[in-house]
Automatic annotation (TrEMBL), chain A:
<protein>
    <submittedName>
        <fullName>Sarcosine oxidase subunit delta</fullName>
    </submittedName>
</protein>
<dbReference type="GO" id="GO:0046653">
    <property type="term" value="P:tetrahydrofolate metabolic process"/>
</dbReference>
<dbReference type="GO" id="GO:0008115">
    <property type="term" value="F:sarcosine oxidase activity"/>
</dbReference>
<dbReference type="InterPro" id="IPR006279">
    <property type="entry name" value="SoxD"/>
</dbReference>
<dbReference type="Pfam" id="PF04267">
    <property type="entry name" value="SoxD"/>
</dbReference>
<dbReference type="InterPro" id="IPR038561">
    <property type="entry name" value="SoxD_sf"/>
</dbReference>
From TrEMBL, chain B:
<dbReference type="InterPro" id="IPR028896">
    <property type="entry name" value="GcvT/YgfZ/DmdA"/>
</dbReference>
<dbReference type="Pfam" id="PF08669">
    <property type="entry name" value="GCV_T_C"/>
</dbReference>
<keyword id="KW-0560">Oxidoreductase</keyword>
<feature type="domain" description="SoxA A3">
    <location>
        <begin position="521"/>
        <end position="603"/>
    </location>
</feature>
<dbReference type="InterPro" id="IPR006222">
    <property type="entry name" value="GCVT_N"/>
</dbReference>
<dbReference type="Pfam" id="PF07992">
    <property type="entry name" value="Pyr_redox_2"/>
</dbReference>
<dbReference type="InterPro" id="IPR023753">
    <property type="entry name" value="FAD/NAD-binding_dom"/>
</dbReference>
TrEMBL record, chain C:
<dbReference type="Pfam" id="PF04268">
    <property type="entry name" value="SoxG"/>
</dbReference>
<dbReference type="InterPro" id="IPR027266">
    <property type="entry name" value="TrmE/GcvT-like"/>
</dbReference>
<protein>
    <submittedName>
        <fullName>Sarcosine oxidase subunit gamma</fullName>
    </submittedName>
</protein>
<dbReference type="InterPro" id="IPR007375">
    <property type="entry name" value="SoxG"/>
</dbReference>
Length: 112, 1003, 191
C-alpha cells in the first residue's frame, strides 16, 4: 500500500487517505475541438511501464488534489507537487532523471 | 503407539490438566499442549483424510507448515473450519472434529477414490468432465462440489469481534527465534523504534529444542535474558501469538495477533490485525524442513524429523516407540539422539549419503544406534499407521534388502529458509547448491518508496545454517536496519555459539534414486492435495513446463498450507522431468498471507451495526419512533414511508400521497445536498458546472439546474438559489452532496485554479423540511413570522427570516406539483421545528410522507429523478430537457460531448409517459419489444420503463419510460412482455399525468 | 435558541478510555488565503487566537482556530457566539476573496480521554491510519483523516485527551466505533 506525501499538508498519507485520479497533465478539449482530439481527451490515457505522472486527491485529509511522479514498475516515488501547474516543476524532473537519465516530460507518453 | 513421556515437555505445565473433545470423545491434555501434541499423547495419530483420495492422514509437522492436521474447531458462533492442530493451543473445553470424511474418520466411503487413484491422475477433472456440456452443470459440478472442499462453512453468525491497530515503527522484526530476538536487540540498542512479533506463544524458536548454547548458557536462559532486555527498552514493543502475515509496498506489513484463541472466554477482540508501517523489516522467519519422497511417505506415523524432536522435547510426546530415521543431512541425527536419550528405540538411521554424516552421526553411533549409509526407504508398510519399512539402497531401483518393524518414521530432506515474507514484495531468490534450497538474494531486496532496500533477512531465513552464523547474521541485520533509519550502530558483538561442520547434504528428490512408476505413484509431494511424484512427471510429460502451470494442473501447493512442505520437492521433480536446472524452473509466486488469517480480522470493526457508516438526519429518531420503514439512499437512511398501526407499506404510501395532495404533507428533505459557492468568479464557474445559465439568476430567485459530466451524461440536478451578489446555494440530490462537492473542487483545483471561487458543503448545517399541499401556506401563517403570501414569496423565489420563531430560509419550490415550501432551519433545531409544524398542522391532518410518496408525487407530474430516468448513459436531450440547455453559453461541462454523433442520433430513445391499457402497473425496467430479431436472435426492443407506480391520485398505473421516437408517437400502444410469458400493453402519453397546467403549485 | 440540541445530546461511554459527546460548539468554516494580512488579523483580533501553523490548532479558552487546508480554517467559539463571529469575520474579509460560513450544526464533537486503565491514543490508533504515539502526535496537533470509514478531524488537547469532530449525521456511527474500541480489556498496551 503506497504512501504519498501530500504537498499541501505535509502528511505522509497512506493510500486509504487518498483517492487516485488517473493520469496528470491532460489538456481539456471542448467546443471547437475536432472529434479525434475530443475523443483523445475523454478516453485515451497513457499507461507507461516506468515513470508516470498521476493525479491524487488527499480526500481523507485536506481535500486537495496533487500530482505524483511515480514508477509503475518499482513504485518508487520521485516526488509530489501541487496540481496547479501545466508541467512538472524542475525539482521533480531532476529527481526523475537522477534515476532515469533518458526520461523527459516531453517524451512521456502522457505529454500532449 | 504415540504416548506421553515421563521426561521433557519444556512448554508444559504438568500440574494442570486440560480436558477437550475430539470427534465426540473426551480426552485429556496438559496446559501448554497444542491440539496436535495432546492428540498424540492420547495415541490419536489419525487426524484427517486427504483431499482427493481420502487417504488416512496423521500429523506430519509441528508448526504452521502442517498440511494434514486440520479440524473443525468450536461450535455455533465460534465454529471455524481448517484449524491447524499444530498451531491450536489447547484449552479447557476445546472441541474439535476431523474433516473430509464420511461417515467417520476411521471408516470413510470417499476412500474409494484411493482405489481408483490410478484412474484419477493429474488433470483428471479437466480431462474427464469436458463433454457433453450440459453434463457439467447438472451432473459433474454438483458431484464435485459435494466431494470437494475441506471442512465446512460456518452456518452461524460469527460471535466474536475483531479490530485493527495502526502502528508505525522504524524496524519491524518478524520471528521470535534467536535471530529475531538478537536482531531486535541490536536495532533496539541503536535507538530505533522496534516491534518484534512471534507467531507462537513462545520465544526462541528451535534453538532450545536443539540444545544450542549461546554465550555459554543454554538457549532457554539466553532467550529469557534477551527478552528481559527487550522488555526493558522503551523503544521496543514485543508481541507473541502475532504472525507477520504479509509484507507490502512502501514498508506496509500486516501482523495477525490471536488474542483469545487460546482462552476463548474473555470478552475482548478475538483477533487484532496490526497494520504496520515500518521503515525497515527484518524477516527472521526461520526455515522449514523438507520431507523426503519415498513410497508410502503419507502413512500416519511418517513425520518430519524436526517435528518428532519438537514433540519429544517441547511436549513430552513420542510419536512412536520404534522410530526409523531417514535423512540426507546431519540434522536428523539430533532426533535420533533425542529419542534414544528419552529411552525410545531407534531401530536404524538410514542415511542416503554414501559417506554418511559427521560428528552427530558419530554421537548417534556412540549411543549404540545402527546407522546405514547409502540406504533409503523402499516403501512404508501400514494403512492407518506405520507398521514397518522396507529398506533398500538409495542408488538402486528399490530392491528390498530388509524389512524393519517400526511405528514411526522421522524423515529429513534438508531445510528450506522461509522466504515468503521476503518474497511478498518482490525480493529475489538464489539457488544454493550445497543446501539444495532457495535463499534470499541480498542484492535484490524489495524496494521502498525512495527506491531503497527495506527488507533484510536474519538467521536461517538468510541461509545461515548454524547458530553461530545465525547470531552473527541477525546482529548485522539489526544494525543495518537501524543505520538505514538514521541511527548509529551499537558497538555490539554477536553472541557466541558453537559453529558446526556437518557433513555435506546430498540432494535427494526421490528415494530410491531409480524408483519405478509403481513406487513413484506412492510418493507424496503434497499431502493435503494428494499430489505425487508421478503426477508432476505426468504434467511435465503433457507439456506443462511452466511451474505456475504445473501448480494449477496438479494442484501442488494449492492447499491451505500453500505448499510449505511440497514446493521445493515438486520443483525439483519438475526440473528433473524437464531436464533443467532447478533455478531455471523457478518458484511459484509467494503471496500473502503467510498462513490463512481470519476473515473477521480483515474486516476489523466493520461488522454488524458498524459494517458501514449510516448517515442519520436530525429527524431520524422521530422516524424510528413513528413507524419509519427505512431505505438506504447512499449512506443515508430515509423513510420510505411511515407505517401506522396495521398498515401495509403500500397502504401507508397511498395514504401519504393523498394526504399531501388533499391537505398537507411534511417531508424530511434534510439529505438534499447544499453547497455554497462564493466568489467573484462564482457565476462564471456555475455556468460551466450547469447546462443552464446560473450567472444571470437574480438575487432572491431559484432555478432548477442540470449537471452533466464531461462526457455529456446527466450526473445530478437540483435547485440553485442566488444568495447575494457573489454567492449561490446549489442543492444536489440526496446521494450527490459529497460527490458534487468533490466534482466542483476537482474542476476548481485542477482546471480553473485561477478562478476566484470558494465552495463549502453545508449540507448538514441545515435540516430541510418540505411543507407541501393546499394547506402549506395556512400552516406557515399559523406558525407566524415572515410573509409567505403569493405576492411576498412567489413561485421559484426564496427568503430568509423567521417562522414560528425559528431562523429559516424558505424556498418556494415544488417537486410535487403542489403549493410547496422547502424550509431550511439549523440542524440542531430541526426536530423542534418539525414538532412545531406537526402541532400547528394537526388541524390540517399534517402527514409525514416518505420517499416513495415523494416519488409518486413527482412521477404524477412527470419530473425526472436522477438514478431512475438516468443511468449514466442518458443526456438531457433524451429527457426532453432541451429548455435547460443554455444556447447563450459557449461552453459547459458536457456540451462538446453532446455534439458527438451518437449523442445527436435521432434514434436515441426519448422520455414519454406510459399508461397501461388495463390500468395495471408496469414492472420497473420492463422492455417494449419491436418487430424482428437482432443479430443474436433476440427480440428487438424499442423502449424501457424507467419509473413506474400505482398513482393513488389517479387510481391507475402510471409510468415513465424511454421509447424510440416516443414523443412523435403519442397515443400509440406498445407491448411489454412479462417474465411469466404474458404481456402488457401501454399507451404512449405525455409524462405529465397530473395538473398539466401547473395550477396547483402556482397559488 | 434554547431548543437547539446536539446530535447525541451529550451521550457518553466508559471503557479504558471515556468517550463523551461534547455538546453544541460554535464552528465556522473560514476560507481564504492564509497569507492575507486581513485574514490573519481577523483570526487574532476577532477569534482571539494565534494563526495556526500547518496541521495545528491554536486555542484560547473556548476559542480555537484549526488548520484544515491551505485555504481553510475551522474557527471554534461558544455556540451562541457563532452568528456574531461569522458576521464580524465576513466584515473583516470585505474586499478580499474569502468566505465565512456558520457550520456549528453540521458537526458533532467528541472528547476521548484516557484513564488509569488505558490510553485514549489507543482508541484512535485502532481506527485511524495515524501514528498516535506520544512522540509523534503531540499537544496542539490537529489532523484530518478517517476514523474507520468516516471522515473526521481530531486534535490533542492534553497528553492523553483528544477532541474529535465528525459530521453530525455520522455521530452515532463514530460514537459506537469509539466506544467499542475503548472497551475495557482491549487495551493494546503500546502507548
Amino acid at each position: 500500500m503506497l504512501i504519498l506525501e501530500c504537498p499541501y499538508c505535509g502528511i505522509h498519507a497512506e493510500e486509504t487517505e487518498l483517492h487516485a485520479g488517473g493520469q496528470a497533465h491532460i489538456k481539456r478539449e471542448t467546443v471547437g475541438a475536432d472529434d479525434a482530439a475530443f475523443e483523445a481527451y475523454l478516453f485515451t490515457r497513457a499507461n507507461p511501464r516506468g515513470v508516470h505522472l498521476e493525479r491524487w486527491r488527499h480526500v481523507n485529509g485536506c481535500g486537495k488534489w496533487f500530482h505524483a511522479a511515480r514508477s509503475t514498475t518499482t513504485l518508487e516515488v520521485f516526488g509530489t507537487y501541487p496540481a496547479q501547474t501545466l508541467t512538472p516543476p524542475d525539482d521533480i524532473r531532476a529527481a526523475i532523471t537522477a534515476k532515469h537519465p533518458d526520461w523527459s516530460f516531453e517524451g512521456w507518453q502522457g505529454a500532449t | 503407539m504415540s504416548t506421553r513421556l515421563s521426561t521433557g515437555g519444556r512448554l508444559l505445565d504438568k500440574t494442570k490438566q486440560v480436558t477437550f473433545q475430539f470427534n465426540g470423545r473426551r480426552l485429556r491434555g496438559l496446559q501448554g499442549d497444542t491440539l496436535a501434541s495432546a492428540l498424540l499423547a492420547n495415541d490419536q495419530m489419525l487426524m484427517g483424510r486427504s483431499f482427493k483420495y481420502h487417504r488416512p492422514r496423521g500429523v506430519v509437522a509441528s508448526g504452521a507448515e502442517e498440511p494434514n492436521g486440520l479440524v473443525n474447531l468450536g461450535r455455533g458462533g465460534t465454529f471455524e473450519p481448517n484449524a491447524r492442530v499444530t498451531t491450536t493451543e489447547l484449552f479447557d473445553g476445546l472441541t474439535a472434529e476431523s474433516q473430509n470424511h464420511w461417515p467417520s474418520l476411521d471408516f470413510d466411503v470417499g476412500v474409494l477414490n484411493n482405489y481408483a487413484s490410478r484412474f484419477m491422475p493429474a488433470g483428471f477433472y479437466y480431462k474427464t468432465f469436458m463433454a457433453p456440456a450440459p453434463a457439467w452443470k447438472h451432473l459433474f459440478e454438483p458431484l464435485i462440489r459435494r466431494a470437494a472442499g475441506l471442512g465446512k462453512a460456518p452456518k452461524d453468525r460469527d460471535a466474536d469481534r475483531y479490530e485493527h491497530f495502526y502502528a508505525f515503527v522504524d524496524v519491524l522484526v518478524i520471528g521470535g527465534g534467536i535471530a529475531g530476538l538478537q536482531g531486535a536487540r541490536a536495532a533496539g540498542q541503536a535507538g530505533a523504534k522496534v516491534m518484534l512479533v512471534e507467531q507462537t506463544a513462545h520465544w526462541g524458536g528451535r534453538a532450545p529444542v536443539d540444545g544450542v548454547e549461546i554465550d555459554g548458557q543454554p538457549a532457554d536462559a539466553w532467550v529469557k535474558n534477551t527478552l528481559q532486555q527487550l522488555e526493558n527498552m522503551d523503544n521496543v514493543t514485543i508481541r507473541s501469538r502475532t504472525m507477520g502475515a504479509g509484507v507490502y509496498d512502501h514498508g506496509y506489513a500486516l501482523a495477525y495477533e490471536r488474542l483469545t484463541d487460546h482462552a476463548p472466554a474473555q470478552d475482548i477482540p478475538r483477533h487484532r490485525l496490526w497494520r504496520i508501517r515500518a521503515g525497515q523489516i527484518i524477516t527472521a522467519t526461520g526455515a522449514i524442513e523438507r520431507p523426503l519422497a519415498f513410497a508410502g511417505n503419507d502413512i500416519p506415523g511418517v513425520m518430519l524429523a524436526s517435528a518428532v524432536r519438537d514433540y519429544a522435547v517441547n511436549f513430552a510426546v513420542s510419536p512412536g516407540d520404534r522410530t526409523v530415521v531417514v535423512t540426507n543431512n546431519d540434522d536428523a541425527y539430533r532426533t535420533a539422539i533425542t529419542l534414544k536419550q528419552a529411552g525410545l528405540e531407534i531401530p536404524v538411521i538410514l542415511d542416503a549419503r554414501p559417506n554418511g554424516g559427521g560428528a552427530l552421526a558419530d554421537q548417534a553411533r556412540a549411543l549404540g544406534v545402527r546407522v546405514e549409509n547409502g540406504k533409503a526407504i523402499a516403501s512404508v508398510k501400514g494403512g492407518k499407521r506405520v507398521t514397518a519399512v522396507d529398506i533398500c539402497a538409495q542408488a538402486g531401483e528399490g530392491s528390498v534388502l530388509e524389512t524393519i518393524d517400526c511405528d514411526a518414521v522421522a524423515m529429513s530432506g534438508g531445510w528450506s529458509p522461509v522466504v515468503h515474507l521476503w518474497s511478498h514484495c518482490g525480493g529475489k531468490l538464489l539457488w544454493d547448491e550445497g543446501e539444495a534450497h532457495f535463499r534470499p538474494n541480498p542484492d535484490a531486496a524489495p524496494k521502498g518508496a525512495q527506491g531503497q532496500d527495506f527488507v533484510i533477512t536474519a538467521g536461517i531465513a538468510s541461509g545461515a545454517m548454524d547458530s553461530a552464523a545465525v547470531l552473527a547474521d541477525a546482529t548485522q541485520a539489526g544494525k543495518t536496519a537501524a543505520v538505514r533509519m538514521g541511527h548509529i550502530a551499537p558497538d555490539m558483538a554477536a553472541p557466541k555459539a558453537d559453529a558446526e561442520e556437518p557433513a555435506p547434504l546430498l540432494p535427494v528428490w526421490k528415494m530410491p534414486q531409480g524408483a519405478g512408476y509403481k513406487l513413484r505413484s506412492k510418493m507424496w509431494l503434497d499431502f493435503q492435495n494428494d499430489v505425487k511424484v508421478s503426477d508432476v512427471q505426468l504434467a511435465a510429460q503433457e507439456g506443462y513446463e511452466s511451474v505456475e502451470h504445473t501448480k494449477r494442473y496438479t494442484t501442488i501447493g494449492m492447499a491451505t498450507d500453500q505448499g510449505k512442505l511440497s514446493n521445493i520437492n515438486g520443483l525439483a521433480i519438475l526440473a528433473d522431468s524437464l531436464n533443467e536446472a532447478i533455478p531455471a524452473v523457478g518458484t511459484t509466486t509467494f503471496r500473502p498471507p503467510y498462513t490463512p488469517i481470519s476473515m473477521g480480522s480483515i474486516g476489523g470493526d466493520a461488522s454488524g451495526d458498524l459494517f458501514q457508516p449510516v448517515n442519520q438526519t436530525p429527524l431520524h429518531q422521530w422516524g424510528s419512533d413513528n413507524g419509519a420503514y427505512w431505505e438506504p439512499v447512499g449512506h443515508w437512511r430515509r423513510a420510505y414511508c411511515y407505517q401506522r398501526d396495521g398498515e401495509t407499506v403500500e397502504q401507508a404510501v397511498h395514504r401519504e400521497v393523498l394526504a399531501t395532495r388533499n391537505s398537507l404533507g411534511l417531508l424530511d428533505a434534510s439529505t438534499l445536498g447544499k453547497i455554497i459557492v462564493k466568489g467573484p468568479d462564482a457565476g462564471k464557474f456555475l455556468d460551466m458546472m450547469y447546462t443552464n445559465m446560473m450567472s444571470n439568476l437574480k438575487q432572491g430567485k431559484c432555478r432548477y439546474g442540470l449537471m452533466c459530466t464531461e462526457n455529456g451524461f446527466l450526473t445530478d440536478d437540483g435547485v440553485v438559489a442566488r444568495i447575494d451578489e457573489d454567492t449561490w446555494l446549489c442543492h444536489t440530490t440526496t446521494g450527490g452532496a459529497a460527490r458534487i462537492h468533490a466534482h466542483m473542487e476537482e474542476w476548481l483545483q485542477t482546471e480553473w485554479w485561477d478562478w476566484k471561487v470558494y465552495t463549502v458543503n453545508a449540507t448538514e448545517q441545515y435540516g430541510q423540511i418540505a411543507v407541501v399541499g393546499p394547506n402549506a401556506r395556512a400552516v406557515l401563517e399559523k406558525l407566524g413570522g415572515m410573509d409567505v403570501s403569493k405576492e411576498a414569496l412567489g413561485f421559484m423565489e426564496w427568503k430568509e427570516g423567521q417562522i414560528g420563531g425559528f431562523d429559516a430560509r424558505v424556498f418556494r419550490i415544488s417537486f410535487s406539483g403542489e403549493l410547496s415550501f422547502e424550509i431550511a432551519v439549523p440542524a440542531s433545531q430541526t426536530r423542534a421545528f418539525w414538532d412545531a409544524l406537526h402541532a400547528a398542522g394537526a388541524e390540517f391532518d399534517a402527514t409525514a410522507y416518505g420517499t416513495e410518496a415523494l416519488h409518486i408525487l413527482r412521477a404524477e407530474k412527470g419530473f425526472i429523478m436522477i438514478g431512475d430516468e438516468t443511468d449514466g448513459t442518458i443526456i438531457p436531450q433524451d429527457l426532453g430537457l432541451h429548455w435547460a440547455l443554455s444556447k447563450k453559453k459557449d461552453d459547459y461541462l458536457g456540451k462538446r460531448a453532446q455534439q458527438r454523433i451518437h449523442m445527436t442520433d435521432p434514434d436515441r430513445w426519448q422520455l414519454v409517459g406510459l399508461e397501461t391499457t388495463d390500468g395495471s402497473t408496469l414492472p420497473d425496467g420492463a422492455y417494449a419489444v419491436a418487430e424482428g430479431v437482432n443479430a443474436n436472435g433476440q427480440r428487438n426492443t424499442q423502449g424501457r420503463v424507467t419509473s413506474t407506480y400505482h398513482s393513488p391520485t389517479l387510481g391507475k398505473g402510471i409510468a415513465m419510460g424511454l421509447v424510440w421516437n416516443g414523443p412523435e408517437r403519442m397515443g400509440e400502444v406498445i407491448n411489454f412482455p412479462m417474465l411469466d410469458g404474458t404481456s402488457k400493453t401501454a399507451k404512449i402519453v405525455s409524462p405529465v399525468f397530473y395538473d398539466p397546467e401547473g395550477k396547483k403549485q402556482n397559488v | 435558541m434554547s431548543n437547539a440540541v446536539s446530535a447525541l445530546q451529550g451521550v457518553s461511554s466508559a471503557g479504558f478510555a471515556t468517550v463523551t459527546e461534547a455538546g453544541l460548539r460554535g464552528m465556522i468554516t473560514l476560507r481564504g488565503d492564509h497569507n492575507a494580512a486581513s485574514l490573519r488579523q481577523a483570526v487574532t483580533d476577532i477569534v482571539g487566537v494565534d494563526m495556526p501553523e500547518v496541521r495545528r490548532c491554536t486555542r484560547a479558552g473556548e476559542r480555537a482556530a484549526a488548520w484544515m487546508s491551505p485555504d481553510e480554517l475551522l474557527i471554534m467559539v461558544p455556540y451562541a457566539d457563532a452568528p456574531d463571529v461569522v458576521a464580524r469575520l465576513s466584515a473583516a474579509l470585505e474586499g478580499m476573496h474569502g468566505l465565512a460560513v456558520n457550520m456549528s450544526d453540521a458537526r458533532a464533537v467528541f472528547m476521548v480521554e484516557g484513564t488509569a486503565e488505558g490510553s485514549a491514543r489507543e482508541v484512535l490508533a485502532k481506527l485511524a491510519p495515524v501514528d498516535m504515539s506520544r512522540a509523534a502526535f503531540t499537544q496542539g496537533m490537529f489532523r484530518r483523516t478517517r476514523l474507520a470509514q468516516a471522515a473526521v478531524a481530531f486534535g490533542a488537547v492534553g497528553d492523553d485527551a483528544f477532541e474529535l469532530i465528525c459530521f453530525r449525521s455520522e455521530a452515532q456511527y463514530v460514537f459506537d466505533l469509539l466506544s467499542m474500541s475503548a472497551k475495557s480489556g482491549s487495551q493494546v498496551g503500546v502507548f
